[in-house]
Design brief:
- This protein has 261 residues and is mainly beta.
- The chain has a single domain (2-259), classed as PK beta-barrel domain-like (M1 Pyruvate Kinase, Domain 3, Beta Barrel), CATH 2.40.33.20.
- The chain has three helices and 19 strands.
- It has helices spanning 101-111, 152-159, 224-230; strands at residues 2-8, 17-19, 21-25, 28-29, 35-38, 57-60, 64-69, 72-77, 84-89, 92-98, 116-119, 147-151, 175-178, 190-193, 196-205, 232-233, 236-247, 249-252, 257-259.
- The strands form four sheets. Strands 1, 2, 12, 13, 14, 15, 16, 17 and 19 form a nine-stranded mixed β-sheet that branches. A four-stranded antiparallel β-sheet has the order 5-11-10-9. A three-stranded antiparallel β-sheet has the order 4-3-18, with no helix packed on it.
- A hairpin with a 2-residue loop joins strand 7 and strand 8.
- The longest helix is centred in the middle third of the chain and has 11 residues, at 101-111.
- The chain is globular, with a radius of gyration of 18 Å.
Length: 261
């Protein structure tokens, strides 16, 4: 049981970056979902309604990130300081730093609508659902949990049932692990990777983002139609495990997963 892929998504709902190693913080992998785009009302943007967000691709630089869209490029620092405003992510309202006009205009131009780029600073308060938290862990702009873990076998098991196989990018994981049985990630409980330790909170309920081809934006009923036949729990179609960080540390591709801490 070992890590075979690591991903971060520095701007919520935009493209991901594959890594060889990462620091792990209480809010998730370092730099993961600390930026977000919001509309003029401070409401977060998501691929659920703006499929084209998938076409914004990101890469890591020594000073931050480069965002690429339609042959246009934007350099973005790791962190931002400045004026703040209240923003909304699902049921949570929290404070975030607002990027300056240069960044906001760039994204507004690409999306053809007024948007702002916001950054979650360290004092911003957003808690993991207390039903699943360990010690009032803080959360990034991620939907609900700091880290998403998926077994490679879970994807292989799904793809064996589909007419056309899907890539792991449909599911936007942070950590992909090999050597587990299909969906065994749901049952890991507490575990260690590298010098960080984790606890599975609950299976991850999936939405229509999984039905969007991340390169072409084509949509279909899959994989949700097939997953609903064998991964339906109540009204939730589950794939992957929502996970919290119990102890911060570092992990890298090749680290072995040790159950229990």
């Amino acid at each position: 049981m070992q890590v075979i892929q690591l991903f971060i998504y520095p701007i919520k709902s935009l493209g991901g970056i594959q890594l060889n190693q990462s620091q792990v913080t209480q809010r998730g992998l370092q730099y993961d979902r600390r930026y977000m785009l919001v509309d003029e009302h401070g409401q977060f943007l998501t691929q659920r309604t703006k499929h084209e967000l998938a076409l914004f691709k990101l890469a890591l630089t020594k000073d931050g990130f480069v965002v690429m869209y339609n042959q246009q490029k934007l350099n973005l620092p790791f962190t931002m300081e400045g004026a703040t405003q209240q923003v909304n992510v699902w049921e949570d309202t929290l404070e975030a730093v607002v990027a300056n006009t240069f960044y906001n205009n760039w994204f507004s131009k690409q999306l053809n609508m007024p948007v702002k780029l916001v950054y979650m600073h360290e004092q911003s308060n957003r808690l993991v659902n207390p039903k699943y938290a360990n010690q009032q862990e803080q959360l990034s702009f991620a939907d609900g949990y700091p880290v998403l873990v998926i077994s490679e076998a879970s994807l292989q098991y799904l793809n064996a049932k589909l007419a056309y196989p899907l890539g792991m990018d449909r599911f936007r994981p942070n950590i992909v692990v090999d050597g587990l049985a299909p969906h065994q990630e749901d049952e890991l409980g507490t575990f260690t990777l590298g010098s960080a330790s984790f606890k599975v909170a609950k299976p991850c309920g999936r939405c229509v983002v999984t039905t969007i081809n991340q390169q072409t934006l084509e949509t279909s009923k899959e994989p949700l139609a097939t997953l609903a036949k064998y991964r339906l729990a109540g009204d939730s179609v589950n794939f992957g495990a929502n996970t919290i960080c119990l102890a911060e540390g570092e992990l890298q591709v090749g680290d072995h997963l040790i159950v229990g801490i």
